[in-house]
Design brief:
With 174 residues, the protein is mainly alpha-helical. The chain is built from three helices and three strands. A three-stranded antiparallel β-sheet has the order 2-1-3, with no helix packed on it.
């Protein structure tokens, strides 16, 4: 028994390097990549295209880190060219005016729609002529507000198009 154990250990050390399995890879007609460790499992028509993969237990060598980028001196961005005709203040005021009116109308529209729901409930309950008139008036106001919002959105889009065409910097459009 004393001799058997050292002989077995010696055989294992010699046999381990030879026991590494080979892996094979091939791609079928549909483009699917297949892997196997048994060359008999490779279909005959792909036998010639199959390739043996080199797989070892050794870790891949670590790649060298790329050198850190050197700090470049701070360069301020070039000033935007001033479009001819209208100045920065005009563009800023125009955008602010359109967006402000749009925000006000949208906020009031939500409130008017809530009020319209309440008026419709009243009309259903009391069935009075003045309730019907109030509902009709509120619907007319909401329609007018929705039309004005659509008009403002169109004006804003046209202004944006004009600003792009004239090369107005983005910070002027805020």
């Amino acid at each position: 028994m004393r001799v058997v154990l050292p002989v077995l250990l010696l055989l294992l050390q010699v046999a381990v390097p030879f026991a590494q399995a080979a892996f094979y890879q091939w791609t079928d007609a549909q483009g699917v990549v297949h892997f196997t460790d048994d060359p008999d499992k490779i279909p005959p028509k792909y036998q010639k295209k199959a390739r043996q993969l080199d797989i070892s237990d050794q870790p891949a060598p670590a790649e060298k880190e790329p050198p850190a980028p050197q700090a470049s001196p701070q360069v301020s961005p070039p000033k935007a060219p001033i479009p001819e005709g209208k100045g920065e203040e005009w563009w800023r005021q125009r955008y602010t005016k359109l967006r402000g009116e749009l925000k006000t109308l949208e906020g009031g529209l939500a409130q008017k729609q809530t009020e319209l729901v309440q008026l419709k409930r009243k009309r259903t309950i009391y069935v009075r002529a003045r309730d019907r008139e109030a509902v009709n008036a509120m619907q007319a106001e909401i329609s007018a507000d929705e039309a004005r919002i659509a008009e403002l959105l169109n004006q804003l889009a046209a202004l944006e198009l004009e600003a792009t065409r004239e090369g107005v910097p983005a910070e002027w459009r805020r």
